[in-house]
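Pilot study result, target chain (109 residues):
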Amino acid sequence: MFPIVAAVVQPDPSPLWAGVVDVALAFLTGACGLTIATRAGERFDDRVVRSAFRMYRTGATALLVLISVYFVVGDRIGWHILLPGLAWRAWLLAWVLPAALSLWEGARR
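Predicted structure:
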């Protein structure tokens, strides 16, 4: 939520606490992603691969939503704030998703 709120509200100047909380949450998110990825390993069964692929295709709709938002209210959004924040989070999700699904399936068995 931090990049979305910061891109839409764009307070001038931004409160220091918001930046500290954003960086702390980003660090925790990255650490959790790395932990999930290392615990699951590199080998995924076909069920996990199919599930991840379906989620990727569904998540690709977010790109259409972003371009629609750009055309409708693009001049009122700080894209230089929004895109980097969303990009690294999307990358982390794409990178960790198969591992998370693999761990989830293993816990359910």
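One observation from the pilot: The chain has one domain: 2-108. A full batch analysis is planned for the follow-on phase.
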